[in-house]
Amino acid sequence: MTIRHVVSWKLATSDPAVRAEHAATIKRGLESLPAVIPQLRSLQVGVSAAPGDDFDVVLISDFESFDDIAVYQEHPAHLEVAGFIRSVVAGRAAVDFEV
């Protein structure tokens, strides 16, 4: 079984340069996680290329189980990235499903 974990974020800033900087920082931070969190089987991060999208950044990641997602979410490296994300977003949506 594979659990796909998908999270989308809307950044708080309306300044395009700041938005691009925050999105790039989020992308770099998230993309660093597979090297240090073995439970994270795969990860993709996308930054919206279209003005007016509902969300600015999306994470698509795969895990073997919900327990592995829990380990990932409590890992110090993830907590550090998540802290930055929380400081710059206005909204978040998430879904976990079996693939």
Write the layout of secondary structure elements.
Layout: E1 3-11, H1 16-31, E2 42-47, E3 57-63, H2 66-74, H3 76-88, E4 89-98
Helix pairs in contact: 1-3
Task: Explain the overall architecture.
With 99 residues, this protein is of the alpha+beta class. It contains 3 helices and 4 strands, in the order βαββααβ. It has helices spanning 16-31, 66-74, 76-88; strands at 3-11, 42-47, 57-63, 89-98. It has a 4-stranded antiparallel beta sheet with strand order 2-3-1-4. The longest helix is centred in the N-terminal third of the chain and has 16 residues, at 16-31.
Rg calculated over all Cα atoms: 13 Å
Total of DSSP H or I helical runs spanning 4+ residues: 3
Task: State the shape.
Answer: globular
Low-confidence segments: none
Distance between the termini: 7 Å
Q: Describe the biggest sheet? A: 4 strands, antiparallel
Number of strands: 4
H/E series: EHEEHHE
* Class based on secondary structure composition and strand pairing: alpha+beta
Average pLDDT over all residues: 97
| Strand arrangement across the biggest beta sheet | 2-3-1-4
Assembly state here? single chain
Helix fraction, binned, reads 25-40%
Strand content: 25-35%
